[in-house]
Amino acid sequence: MYRPKTTLEQWRILQAVVDYGGYAQAAAKLNKSQSSLNHAVAKLQGLLNVQLLEVKGRKAFLTEAGEVMLRRSRHLTQDVEELEALADSINQDWEPEITLAVDLAYPRAWLYPVLADFLPQSRGSRIRLLDTVLTGTDDAITEGWADLVIGGGVPRGYLGEAIGEIYFEAVCHPEHPLAQMPFPLDPNELVHHLQLVIKDTSASPQEKQGWLKSELRWTVSQFHTAIDLLCQGIGFCWLPCHEVSALVQQGKLARLSIRNSSFRKHINWLVVPRPDSAGPGTKLLQELILTHRQLQAPNPVNPGLAAEE
């Protein structure tokens, strides 16, 4: 039988040194001495006879071989975590707590009937319902800290079920200068006006979605704060139609007709980050969300046709 030369702890230390930017930072995060981390990585390199890191100044950098090995090691440590989580799931009849991460744009009116149906069958399981935004929603999947995730995309390497679609529209106060201009607006006109944006909940946000070219931007954490500012005549913002349609009808906000971009459609997806270790409560909640989905499931015989009701 093959006996590994290396240990999971050595690979975990290597990952920490890279992720936190050096030995000192990793030592602080792992609550270990810097010398023990140096020794662990040096031993790992010696056992493999491969240089994984090279130190330049005070920072450690991956070698070309190190990049390959690190990438593969992440699969290894993740597999072990999932294996242990699976054991926990097998050993417990019902999860004491289920974490559901939901992108802020997903209409809560679609979610509440699901939770109402879940409650009588929940067997006392607690629900942690957490709001996420953009990259923060992806983090809930890739970092595995949520049992179920509803968001606007599916990260690479994961599977998801489409459960609904929402539309975003650009709005401002009816007396805002943008609302006084002839429609459709040239997108370049927006550059010179304050844009309100919703804060990405990720610890490492990536500005890769949406129109973010305005020279002046204010960031808020909730749609309601953005709406309050808009109603004061401050800025413009892309917001979900279900959040602003009543205010538009009341004349408190105005839709902006923008050339080539008046509306944006987003598909909502349900993702189970760790399907192999999902407990019975998580599976039940997943089934209920799919039962209440706002999109028809594709026809299994002809995916191009909507399923018959």
Automatic annotation (TrEMBL):
Keywords: DNA-binding, Transcription, Transcription regulation
Record keyword Transcription present: yes
Limits of the HTH lysR-type domain: 6-63
PROSITE patterns per record: HTH_LYSR
Protein name: LysR family transcriptional regulator
Keyword Transit peptide set for record: no
PANTHER family cross-referenced by the UniProt entry: HTH-TYPE TRANSCRIPTIONAL REGULATOR (PTHR30126), TRANSCRIPTIONAL REGULATOR-RELATED (PTHR30126:SF88)
One GO MF term: transcription cis-regulatory region binding
Leader peptide range in chain numbering: none
Lineage top rank: taxon: Bacteria
Family note: Belongs to the LysR transcriptional regulatory family.
